[in-house]
Specification:
By secondary structure, this protein is an all-alpha fold. The C terminus is likely disordered. The chain is globular. It contains ten helices and no strands. Helices cover about 80% and strands about 0% of the residues. α2 crosses α10, α6 runs antiparallel to α8 and α9 packs antiparallel against α10.
């Protein structure tokens, strides 16, 4: 039984590494056989990544992108979670506000780039504002739905113990809705990471998105373009993995027990 569990544990890492290695092999030989002079091979991308690291800009670009995402995402979370809890708890308020949310929610944050530049100029504030917009609506909708999906027996039990509405929300409703809220946070973070790359191509002069467009315009360094793309993907994977780990914490998942 232990050997089977150990084998399954290794397979969890072995198969993704195998697929990644196979992808690199196919990529390498595709470049060789096509004799392309434009698209880089994996070795070219690796050399370009080392070049960026030696210049000391690689870590700075990653940190700048994460800093902007962190500022916009955390600000959106601090406002959207309480707003979603309030709207989910008071259906009359949701009835008034929800149409506006549903109108604004489908608008791509990229469409707000000209407006953000007019309001905040070319710089960090414009990028952070776009990330805020990208994060706010998924989080507020997830919070509203999380409150609505809390079983009524939880609320009745809280009232029977004499909890005030504020304490009932804080001690019962919020923990029960937390799994769905975290799922909304995870979705919002993925969208925010997409948006920061687009925003950095236009509104700022640092970050991974800026690295993509600057490498393309300055000497057509497609090895650096692909290196930046891979870094964007790896960073996004790391952020998603963090939230997947949080979702598996038992104290977070107690809201799902009624479904078992």
């Amino acid at each position: 039984m232990n050997s089977l569990a150990q084998t399954m544990k290794w397979e969890k890492y072995l198969w993704p590494l195998f697929v990644a290695g196979l992808f690199l092999i196919v990529w390498h030989f595709s470049v060789r056989w096509s004799h392309t002079k434009v698209f880089p091979s994996p070795f070219d991308v690796a050399r370009g990544t080392v070049e960026l690291a030696r210049k000391g800009v690689l870590a700075n670009y990653v940190i700048d992108s994460l800093r902007r995402v962190g500022a916009g995402f955390l600000t959106a979370s601090a406002l959207a979670i309480p707003a979603g809890l309030f709207l989910g708890w008071y259906p009359a308020a949701e009835l008034v506000v929800n149409p506006t949310i549903q109108i604004l929610r489908p608008i791509s944050p990229i469409a707000w780039i000209p407006v953000s530049i007019i309001w905040f100029g070319v710089g960090d504030l414009a990028a952070v504002y776009l990330i805020f917009l990208a994060s706010f609506f998924p989080i507020v909708v997830a919070s509203m739905n999380g409150v609505r999906n809390v079983p009524s027996m939880y609320r009745r039990a809280g009232r029977n113990f004499g909890l005030s509405p504020a304490k009932l929300i804080a001690r019962v409703v919020f923990p029960a809705a937390l799994p769905q809220i975290i799922m909304g946070l995870r979705i919002a973070l993925g969208i925010a990471w997409l948006v920061v790359v687009a925003a950095e191509m236009i509104a700022v002069d640092s970050g991974l998105g800026y690295l993509v467009i600057d490498s393309r315009n300055s000497g057509k360094r497609y090895d650096l373009v692909v290196a930046a793309m891979i870094l964007i993907g790896l960073t996004g994977l790391a952020l998603d993995t963090v939230f997947r780990r949080i979702e598996k914490i038992k104290s977070v998942r107690w809201g799902f027990r009624n479904e078992s």
